[in-house]
């Protein structure tokens, strides 16, 4: 487990980019944190490091945004869903078994559908508007 | 040319009959807002089930109100993206079945192309070609972008949001304020009598920092996540701001900041592109405060501005049938309908 205090959205993105350098096809990231905690921001850092060359915007309305980079990036948002069944209905399984990196916001809505290898990233508001406590729970490799 | 349009990309089941890309003979929209309200947003499973139930009656209503029959339709048009895959699929499947059964041509339409075209459905716009080059600010729950239109079939993305769409920022802001769904109209209502200058919320991107913009100019892109976070902190420090006159100030200041950010990018872009006309389309374009600010901007810039008619701001099928007809009349062959494209970009819309 790794815990880091970031002092700005740019630092949060840099921390994510650091993690992304060690990601492989099939890796799953579960992002946890309330509204405005920086989940999309963290995934922007992942995308940058995976050499995605387009803006990464919130998938709250579309549920899934797919990007091409060094590895495909599947950016999923479960904010609109209620249960793990809803997530399976939208095809979550196919992304988890896909050839890319899957990054899931509001992942706790489908906790039981996530594989054991999932890397959990927990974001919490810090003392100031810019600060975030970021906890990364992952296996040895990453 | 009579076009029957079908639109099921999100949470509205819609069908419309439009003549020659301009005259709207019928425009039926069955909103599912009430079904989704308890969840503070669109629930995909509920949406697709509702589309299945509503689509045929909505189609029949559209024909009846247009005083026409299946035989008289020249072209079918259906939204194939972007949107929710499970919702898009209902419209696309129905459209393909109808096309085969009726032996009528069918064309796929980009939902965003429909929104862009919605300004041309204004009865006051008799010839869309007089508007171009047109800078369009497209503002919805899922999208926020600036597009340059050089003709009905020719356009280019100039800028977009780098995180949340403005409609989403309003929805999430409303949730934080303890207001209902959809957030935009709720915030507009709550803002009545509030002072838009009371709270200094951030107005989007500043300088080179922040998320990557791909190949787009950062000066033409939007960011609303800082606004949302600022609201979160304000309400955390002042829980009493969720009520009464204080709530009105917060709501008024919040939407003011969001709209100022839109206007800043829009004005800069209109000036840089040398356009004589700009337009605002999409659900957020219904907001009266935003319309007032667009009016002021047009006066400052000395250009003409156009809003999509109210009925064609939120999702509808008239804009789908409209753009399909206009494109077909310009000799462009139908776009085959194969599958759905939940992430379809605006650039692919021609």
Find the biggest chain interface: A-B, 34 and 43 residues
The dominant shape of chain A is: globular
Number of helices of chain A: 4
Q: What is the overall number of helices of chain B?
A: 10
Helix share bin of chain B? 40-55%
**What's the arrangement of strands in the largest beta sheet of chain A?**
1-7-6-2-5-4-3
Derived structural class of chain A: alpha/beta
Counting structural domains of chain B, the number is: 2
For the record, the CATH architecture of chain A stands as 3-Layer(aba) Sandwich
CATH class of the largest domain in chain B: Alpha Beta
What is the count of β-strands of chain B?
A: 10
Description:
The complex is a heterodimer of chains A (142) and B (350). With 142 residues, chain A is of the alpha/beta class. Chain A is built from four helices and seven strands, in the order βαβαββααβββ. Chain A has a single domain (2-137), classed as Rossmann fold. Chain A has helices at 9-20, 39-49, 84-89, 92-96, and strands at residues 2-6, 28-32, 64-67, 73-77, 101-105, 119-125, 132-137. Chain A has a seven-stranded mixed β-sheet, covered by helices on one side. In chain A, helix 1 (9-20) crosses helix 2. The radius of gyration of chain A is 14 Å and the shape is globular. The mean pLDDT of chain A is 91. Helix content of chain B is 40%, strand content 19%. Chain B has helices at 33-36, 44-65, 85-102, 111-117, 166-177, 183-190, 225-237, 244-273, 288-301, 318-329; strands at 2-7, 12-19, 23-31, 75-81, 106-110, 134-139, 144-151, 154-160, 277-281, 304-307. Chain B starts with a strand and ends in a 21-residue tail after the last helix. In chain B, 56% of the residues are buried.
């Amino acid at each position: 487990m790794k815990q880091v205090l970031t002092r700005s959205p740019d630092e949060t993105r840099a921390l994510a980019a650091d993690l992304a350098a060690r990601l492989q096809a099939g890796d799953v990231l579960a992002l946890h944190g309330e509204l405005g905690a920086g989940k999309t921001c963290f995934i922007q850092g992942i995308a940058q490091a995976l050499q995605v060359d387009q803006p990464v915007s919130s998938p709250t309305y579309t549920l899934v945004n797919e990007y091409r980079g060094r590895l495909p990036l599947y950016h999923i948002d479960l904010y609109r869903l209620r249960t793990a069944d809803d997530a399976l209905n939208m095809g979550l399984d196919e992304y988890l078994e896909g050839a890319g990196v899957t990054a899931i916001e509001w992942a706790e809505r489908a906790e039981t559908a996530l594989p054991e290898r999932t890397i959990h990233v927990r974001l919490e508001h810090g003392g100031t508007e810019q600060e975030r406590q970021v906890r990364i729970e992952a296996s040895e490799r990453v | 040319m009579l076009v029957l349009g079908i639109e099921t990309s999100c949470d509205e089941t819609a069908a419309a009959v439009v003549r020659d890309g301009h005259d709207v003979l019928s425009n039926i929209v069955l909103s599912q807002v009430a079904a989704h309200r308890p969840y503070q947003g669109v629930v995909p499973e509920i949406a697709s089930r509702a589309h299945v139930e509503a689509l045929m009656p909505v189609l029949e209503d559209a024909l009846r109100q247009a005083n026409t029959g299946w035989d008289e339709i020249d072209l079918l048009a259906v939204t194939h993206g972007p949107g929710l895959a499970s919702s898009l699929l209902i419209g696309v499947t129905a459209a393909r079945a109808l096309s085969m059964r009726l032996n009528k041509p069918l064309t796929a339409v980009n939902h965003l192309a429909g929104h862009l075209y919605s300004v041309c459905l204004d009865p006051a716009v008799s010839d869309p070609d007089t508007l171009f080059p047109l800078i369009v600010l497209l503002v919805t729950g899922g999208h926020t972008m600036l597009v340059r239109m050089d003709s009905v079939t020719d356009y280019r993305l100039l800028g977009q949001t780098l995180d949340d769409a403005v409609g989403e920022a309003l929805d999430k802001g409303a949730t934080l304020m303890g207001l209902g769904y959809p957030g935009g109209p709720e915030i507009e209502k709550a803002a009545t009598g509030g002072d838009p200058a009371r709270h200094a919320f951030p107005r989007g991107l500043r300088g080179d920092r922040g998320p990557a913009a791909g190949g787009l100019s950062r000066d033409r892109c939007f960011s609303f996540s800082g606004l949302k976070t600022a609201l979160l902190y304000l309400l955390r420090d002042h829980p009493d701001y969720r009520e009464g006159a204080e709530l009105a100030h917060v709501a008024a200041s919040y939407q003011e900041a969001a709209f100022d950010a839109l206007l800043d990018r829009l004005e800069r872009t209109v000036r840089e592109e040398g356009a004589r006309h700009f337009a605002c389309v999409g659900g957020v374009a219904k907001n009266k405060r935003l319309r007032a600010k667009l009016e002021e901007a047009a006066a400052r810039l000395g250009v003409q501005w156009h809003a999509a008619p109210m009925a064609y701001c939120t999702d509808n099928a008239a804009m789908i049938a409209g753009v399909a007809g206009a494109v077909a009349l310009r000799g462009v062959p139908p776009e085959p309908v194969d599958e759905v494209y939940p992430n379809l970009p605006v650039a692919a819309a021609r």
